[in-house]
Amino acid sequence: MLTFNTLVGVCFLYVIMLFLVAFVADKRARRSKVRFLSSPMIYTLSLSVFCTAWTFYGAVGYAARSGLEFVTIYLGPTLVMIGWWWFLRKLVRVGRSQRVTSIADLVSSRYGKSNLLGVLVTLIAVIGTTPYIALQLQSVTLSFAVFARDRSAGWVIPDLEQTAIWVAGGLALFTILFGTRNLDVNERHHGVVTAIAVEAVVKLVALMAVGIFVVWGIGGGPQGISAAMEQAIQAAPEGAWSLQGGRWVGLTFLSAAAFLTLPRMFQVLVVENVDERQLATASWAFPLYLFLMSLFVIPIAVVGLAILPKGENPDLFVLTLPLYFEQDGLAMLAFLGGFSSATSMVIVASIALATMVSNHIIMPLWLSTRLGVDASEYRDARQILLSARRLSIVGILALGYFYYRISGGGAALAAIGLISFAGVAQVLPAMAGGLFWRGASRSGAVAGLITGFAIWAYTLFLPSFGEAGVISASVLADGPWGIAALRPQALFGVDGLDPVVHALFWSLILNCSVFVSVSLLSFPSPLERLQAAQFVNVLDQSGPARGRSFNAATSEDLLVMAQEIMGSDQAQAWFQAQAEQQGKQGYLPDTTPDFIGRLERELSGLVGTATAHAMIGQILGGTTVSVDDLLAVADETQQMLEQTSQLEAKQLELTTTARQLSEVNEKLTQLSIQKDAFLSQISHELRTPMTSIRAFSEILRDGGANDPEAAARHASIIHDESVRLTRLLDDLLDLSVLENGQVQLYPRREVMRDVLDRAIAATSSVIDQEKMHIHRNRSDEGGALYTDTDRLAQVFINLISNAAKYCDAKDKRLAIRVRQRGGRLQVDFVDNGSGVPLESQSMIFEKFSRLSDQAAAGGAGLGLAICREIMDKLDGSITYLPGQSGAAFRVTLPIGTQSPFGRRWPSDINHL
Amino acid sequence: MTRQVLVIEDEPNIAEAISFILSRDGWSVSTHASGTTAVQAVRDAKPDVLILDVMLPGKSGYDILQDLRSADDTRALPVLMLTARGQKTDRELAERLGVNRFMTKPFSNSEMLTNLRELVGG
After folding, report:
1. CA end-to-end span of chain B, whole Å?
2. Host domain of residue A678
3. Is some CB atom of chain A closer than 8 A to the CB atom of B104?
4. Residue A731: inside a domain, yes or no?
5. Contact at CB, B12 and A721, closer than 8 angstroms
6. Per-residue pLDDT reduced to its tens digit, A615-657
7. CA quadruple A192, A198, A200, A202: dihedral, nearest 10
8. Which of A148, A345, A455, A479 has the CB geometry, 3.0–4.6 Å to A507, for a possible disulfide?
9. A698/B109 CB distance under 8 A
């Protein structure tokens, strides 16, 4: 026979046992490496805080009312664990790399460390979790009541509400002792996690034990159960057990979203995660756990419906069935299972909420009252923080209790759970968006959260207080001010939907739309962009983040890191020197602040100040990387990028220079080749007359011809060739001077006619010799010149003598025509020969491009090249005129009103 | 028996000097000034030895030498090459083409005579 005292006694013993487990686990975690805690099984079992009293008791009630639909609550998390494990991995990685302490911290951190978002998410979490805590209170209270009622002969609990207050108080004390026992405000609670894992086992064992008892003890095995099922389906009200697609999808999605956003789930999933690799095990082990938890739900429900008297609360079948058959031990176990479910949920949820409330609401308020206080009061802050946590825990449980009182404690467990789920699910868009979309902005997150939360409150939360509650029956039926479109449970005329699905649909749709559109319209701050990049790209940044507990910062760890950066030999030598300074042997000096400072400076030289600081901070564990550190890192990165781009610019410059150099080199090579060809040409041109001179002079020296006439001829050849040689040298010098631009010009005022007269006079001998006729129109030749007319005459002489020498007509004729064209004078020299062949016209102005082969012509092939240089210097030109009857050259030059140097001479003015 | 020598040279004064020197030494000398028709001139004249300039109008001395060396009737004809471009590469090219003697201008008259005598085996 169970007595109340036994029940309370067992509860006490159980709690003390849990406390011991937590204590031992904490101690082991502190003392040594946390290998035992990093077991993926502990992690997986701790995830079972998802299964609260709601699942323990409520699932059976749910099944008794709606058949298989309760499965959706397990389906969501299962899908997340199996199908969305990339999402979880990213979430865990971000949480660990950013040292996130709660879901509020995650959202706040992602959107530029926004405290407004932190407060907002905290409020949503508190309001969303309160019904849930009330639910746990209710279930524990109810379970006590079950025992009380059945023991009519023994003990009676006079007042359920009083029981509830005791339960709430007990849980608060329990949580404070567990969650804020130590002064170490590290957000991880190895002891609690271990205790939760133990409770998870108790839950599972209790439910399975009841299930096995029900199926094989009283239900008549699987056949009996299926018979009972058919009976239950027939007995159930029309449609209650049928599958409703909309609700299934909605509820599955809801439980999946809640799995990710419930504060307590975030606590165990992300914050308490010791090693990312635990996720891999959990991804199959946790769905297995959920499967086992749900295995006997239907059997217990149908057997309960069949056997227990009508009117029994199906939410308590797990307890009432064993009691009905007087299985006190089993009932006790079931009670402990339910108690475990409730306590684990309340403990973790209130720890998570207390962290959020104290970090995002109380601490900022406290800090704002103490602006200017120096950092030495850190110890004070820690004490304040712990007090804030404890106060928050009490406050949260008090809230839960009052909700329980206000809501009347009558609503079915499952319904309350779903309201909570829908509330916290409002954080999902901001969270998921923040992880995967860099464009998500703070304003968008705030707007989306407020929208979603408001709609949730209006359509689901407030109506849950019942018609006598916050929203009156008339508003529920007709909408506020009689506007039907605003009816809380049929928003915008969407009627006939299940209230939960309706609320979920509207709140999330509007939440997402507002979140996305405001994000698109707003512009994120630099810090937000930095955080966005760190969150979205977290998987690219580094390998999986291993254990975070570097509490015992060893110089060995620092040495390992220093070796990575400085190189093994150098790092070891440096560490050895430091150790020696401290009077120690070996490579590991004490991690004194002095040593840390020097190491940081040493590393700064290699990786930059901010990075070195951040890296050492990471290893020392105590300090998180501050925003300033991150910004400084970003700054350094920016500088490095700039340096890189400068380097790139320099490289481009070098490439250009190299190309220019190679072009110049090419040109030089070309010039060198030309020079060689030129020298070879000159050599040939010089050697040719010399050959004749030497040959004939040797003939004369060796006695010569007997014939004096022949001797005279030989002497005259020697003379001619000498003259030719001299002329060649003159030409070469002339050309060289002209080409180097060293030529001195002597401009003079003269009329074209006179220059031509002089040129013809100078060539009269060759003209006479060749019997060439020159045709001129002297009246056209009055153009005034102001130029170096001696040089101009030189050009004319060259052209005239060329015509005389090379014109191949029998009756040689040369026409010289002068014309004025647009401020320039044109002088054409056209003979009646066969002209220059087309293919040679382009090269006749090149050096040594003598067309004729007869050296008799006497030129060295430099004449036209010299002419071109001269005309260049005189600001004029000389070209070959194709298409004339014979060879035709055109010389153009400026009219004498202008100097060849672009200057007007003062004396000119009088003449104009 | 007078030896026949053909001089292919476009510079009239040089051709005249060579003619005078060789005639006085008892050679029978003919001259030709064009590169283009030089090979035909060789066939027509059938000289015992050939003096060949390099820089000729229409066709270079090297091309002429190549033609001569590839035809049966002129393959064995002794050739003395004269050039104003006395660089090493010119000499090498000439030797590769099968020249018998190579002289640069200006040349020594007696040396030329010596070379010619050696070429005809006298």
Report:
1. 11
2. 633-725
3. yes
4. no
5. no
6. 666 666 544 445 555 555 666 666 777 778 888 888 888 999 9
7. -140
8. A455
9. yes
